Amino acid sequence: RHAGFIELFDSEGHSLGRIDGPLPFEPVFEVIAGERAPSMASGESLRFGYVDVAPTADRIYALFSGRTRASHPGEATYGDVVHVFSWDGTLVAELELDVDAFAIAVDEDRNRLLAVRHLPTPAVVSFDLPVRDG
């Protein structure tokens, strides 16, 4: 959620590797003493990366933010670009959404990308996916 890469794991939790996005960055966080327990500091410089992922049998659809809280007050947790990867980590497409979304899903039967937005009103919006060969 706070990095420009996606880590892949099998169903037993074993690492399968890492996919770097087109704007890779490492997570940066600081632990601070909270009222009840230590917690992650979440100041204005906190940067968001991949905020949601929707895998299919042959693609990984990853909703990317890249925003900081300082640059997008109240909207840093949303993304408007979906990076589409093959399972070998190759970036095969970038889909620009006309909404700021916080969740995505793929309807393969209808060849649609579904995105959940919060503002200006909560809604599920639908986008055509590019037609692929084979």
Average pLDDT taken over every residue: 92
* Major sheet characteristics: 6 strands, antiparallel
What Rg, in angstroms, do the CA atoms define? 16 Å
How much helicity do the residues have? under 10%
Q: Tell me the overall shape.
A: globular
Number of strands: 10
Range of strand content: over 45%
Descriptive account of the structure:
It is built from no helices and ten strands. The model has no long low-confidence stretch (mean pLDDT 92). By secondary structure, the chain is mostly beta strands. The chain has a six-stranded antiparallel beta sheet, with no helix packed on it. A two-stranded antiparallel sheet has the order 1-2.
Topology of this protein?
Layout: E1 5-9, E2 15-20, E3 31-33, E4 38-40, E5 50-55, E6 59-64, E7 79-86, E8 91-107, E9 112-117, E10 123-128
Antiparallel strand pairs: 1-2, 3-4, 5-6, 6-7, 7-8, 8-9, 9-10
What features would you highlight for this structure?
134 residues, mainly beta, 0% helix, globular
Question: Would you summarize the structure shown here?
Answer:
This protein has strands at 5-9, 15-20, 31-33, 38-40, 50-55, 59-64, 79-86, 91-107, 112-117, 123-128. With 134 residues, the protein is mainly β.
